[in-house]
UniProtKB/TrEMBL annotation:
It comes from Pleomorphomonas diazotrophica. InterPro entries: Peptidase_M74 (IPR005073), Zn_M74/Hedgehog-like (IPR009045). The lineage of its organism: Bacteria, Pseudomonadati, Pseudomonadota, Alphaproteobacteria, Hyphomicrobiales. Residues 226-273 are annotated as: Disordered. This is Penicillin-insensitive murein endopeptidase. Residues 249-267 have a biased composition (Pro residues).
Amino acid sequence: MSCRLAALFLLATILPAAAETPAKQLFGAVEAPAPLAARSIGSYARGCLAGAALLPVNGPTWQVMRLSRNRNWGNPVLVGFLERLAAKAPAVGWNGLLVGDMSQPRGGPMSSGHASHQIGLDADIWLTPMPKRELTYDERERVSAVSMLAPNTLSVDPKKFSDRQFNIIRLAAKQPEVERIFVNRAIKKALCEGATGDRGWLSKVRPWWGHDFHFHIRLACPRNSPTCKPQVDPPSGDGCGAELQSWYAPPPPKPTKPSKPKPPPPEITLKDLPPECSQVLVAK
Ligand SMILES: [Zn+2]
């Protein structure tokens, strides 16, 4: 049986049963990448990854954290990018980078932690520099990341968020492959207040919930991925005015009459992902 026929046969037999299974269970269960041409398929929060490359758990200037999650996979473009960024980190005062979640071996939705990170173009980088020694497997599981926020969460804690953190985020944002960087609103505020000279890079740095322990790098759809769905451009400008203010707006008042709780959104299944992702899931 040809490879293609075998894949179709597998699809026909496996997928009816898999159709209703949450896609995060299917993609979370696969331990190796799809042996197909490398490409990111679909959108950052609805897609998958073929031909993933592995970021080695140790490099000269990086270490991967939480190895049990098996999420240090990405489009080879992302892996190459992270290796180059890590090599530049010592120039801005970092011994190296601690790399958090990238993607699962075949991308797709994850059982915990993220809505995006599905197509091998997202990576979380800890805001704590890499120590000088190699961390053990156990330490990489257990060491807690450090929040950069002051206790009131409105600003950063200057004892934790210093020039070093500022400089690594700016360095990442200035790389042409980077389309977005997500940080907590208080970190965006600190960047807005601290930026001098060129402020163009600030438009890529977007406030988002969480992201006070790490920053999130998102690369643009690379050339190797014709079915990668790009995001719309961020609004022009540095985002330090009304947009940042909107993250500090008081929450809307609670309705006086209790409303019915909303049902949880339905789980993403294979039919919600690009059809190519069903092939990626079963490719051998
Ligand atoms: Zn992230």
